[in-house]
Amino acid sequence: MKFIGNLLPLFRKTRLTFVKAHREAGNVMSFYFKPEKPISWTAGQHGIISIPRNLKGRSWRGFSIASVPEDELLMISTRILDKPSQFKNTLMNLATG
């Protein structure tokens, strides 16, 4: 039954509110979100981020969580290439809140 217990978090949804973006170095950007309710994760875990917009292609992507579980904000980091996908372009242009 431990296997099923390990899968349950995959199906847990949490609304995130965009807080800020920060250019780390070069073409790497970090995006900070405040969870609607407290969430927990293990260092190195990843999550699926979905943007509720009409995007060409998938409206979701998997990202490694770059923040530590004790942080108040959830942070993801990603490379932004010269011609970003519509998803990353939308992510870069999110308005606070």
Model description:
- This protein is mostly beta strands.
- The chain has one domain: Elongation Factor Tu (Ef-tu), domain 3.
- Helices cover 13% and strands 35% of the residues.
- It has a 3-stranded antiparallel beta sheet, with no helix packed on it.
- It is globular and about 35 Å long.
CATH superfamily: Translation factors
The geometry reads as globular
Tally of contiguous helical segments: 2
β-strand number:
5
Main β sheet profile: 3 strands, antiparallel
* Spans where pLDDT lies below 50 across 5 or more residues: none
* Integer tally of domains: 1
CATH class reads: Mainly Beta
Please list the strands of the largest sheet in the order they lie side by side. 1-2-5
The CATH topology comes to Elongation Factor Tu (Ef-tu), domain 3
Radius of gyration (Å): 14 Å
Tell me the β content: 35-45%
What is the correct CATH architecture?
Beta Barrel
Head-to-tail CA distance between termini: 39 Å
Structural class: mainly beta
Please estimate the helix content.
Answer: 10-25%
Mean pLDDT: 85
